[in-house]
Amino acid sequence: MTTVEPTDALTLPESDATTFASWFACLAEPTRVRLLHAVATSAGGSTVGALTETLGISQSTCSHHVRKLAEVGFVHLRKEGTATVVTVNQACCSGLPHAADAVMGLLAPRPCCPGEAPADLTVRALRAEDWPAVRRIYGEGIATGIATFETSVPSRATLDAKWLPGHRWVAEIDGEIVGWAAATAVSARECYRGVAETAVYVGDGHRGRGVGKALVRQQVTEADRAGLWTLQASIFTENRAGIALHHAAGFRTIGVRDRIAQRDGAWHDTVLVERRSPVA
After folding, report:
1. Which of 4-18, 29-43, 93-107 has the highest mean pLDDT?
2. CA-to-CA distance for 168 and 159, rounded, in angstroms?
3. Which of 5, 97, 117, 183 has a CB 3.0–4.6 Å from the CB of 167, allowing a cystine?
4. Dist CA 77 CA 85 (whole Å)
5. 125 contacts 169 by C-beta, under 8 angstroms
6. Tens digits of per-residue pLDDT, 252-276?
7. Residues 54-111: tens digit of each pLDDT
8. What stretches of 25-82 adopt beta strand conformation (E)?
9. What percentage of residues in the chain have a pLDDT greater than 70?
10. CA distances from 153 to 170, 177, 280 (A)
11. Nearest-angstrom CA–CA distance, 243 and 273
12. 31 to 21, 23, 170, 220: CA distances (angstroms)
């Protein structure tokens, strides 16, 4: 899918309107919507033959609509022997919502934040004794394959040197560190002193319990208080939960960076999200 620039809240650029119109026009055919849904919900993709059976349509009809989806960039096609395997373009998961938000004028900054934190959870500043737990949770994030391009946990010294003082947080339940959040300056240049890149990690076994919401709330509110005017994050397109978390905290999708870097020899796309402070 083509990456688009962030759109003005009042005037939608003609180039963006043309791009979005091509996406919407492609999906104006119900069979294509059903096909895209079938491919997006099929782990590892699906063959044209399997899609034909799933949707109850002829193979020629299926092939025709799959080609239309591929032309726009909603799906990728690859040959495996005599079969054509169809896989979803993960950038669609962010590109389509971005297009809808742009058209409907929803890209203005939104207030923070996700809902209230669980009653048994405390978010506090990182202390020296927390580093082993923080690095362990970092490793658990690496193991998911969709949290970072890192393949080994950085040293304490490396993290301590790059994380901004006053913007390092841990989440604690019953004395156990279950997640952390930190911000890193994007540049040493004075003009970018208020711009930081953020990271939020939740430990294995504690995801989906509101830990990430509590951490991002603390992260964003403290950034506003400290005068950071822009927070940004690069999130793997496959990490839908992470993208949703940031959207709920007032981040907007700026674009999708195609094949931005490799992990374990495979190229990955990332979604660039950004939050502008309503305070600064």
Report:
1. 29-43
2. 10
3. 183
4. 6
5. yes
6. 888 888 899 999 899 999 999 999 9
7. 999 999 999 999 999 999 999 999 999 999 999 999 887 677 877 887 787 655 555 6
8. 46-47, 75-80
9. 91
10. 17, 17, 34
11. 8
12. 18, 15, 47, 42
- 218, 123 contact by CB (below 8 A): yes
Give, as one character, the DSSP assignment of residue 53. H
Q: Residues 6 or more apart from 212 whose CB is under 8 A from it?
A: 179, 200, 202, 241, 242, 245
* Exposed / middle / buried, residue 256 (Cβ in 10 Å: 0-12, 13-18, 19+): buried
The whole-angstrom separation of Cα 81 and Cα 73 is: 23
pLDDT digits (tens, 9 = 90+) for 164-219: 999 999 999 999 999 999 999 999 999 999 999 999 999 998 988 899 999 999 99
For each of the domains in the chain, give its residue range(s) and CATH number, in order of start.
14-103 (1.10.10.10), 121-276 (3.40.630.30)
Compute the radius of gyration of the chain from its Cα atoms: 21
Q: Position 11: which residue type? A: T
Vertex 110: Cα angle to 166 and 234 (nearest 5): 60
Closest CA to 3 of 196, 274, 275, 270: 270
CA 67, 256, 246, 101 torsion: positive or negative?
Answer: negative
- C-alpha 241/C-alpha 262 separation (Å) is 21
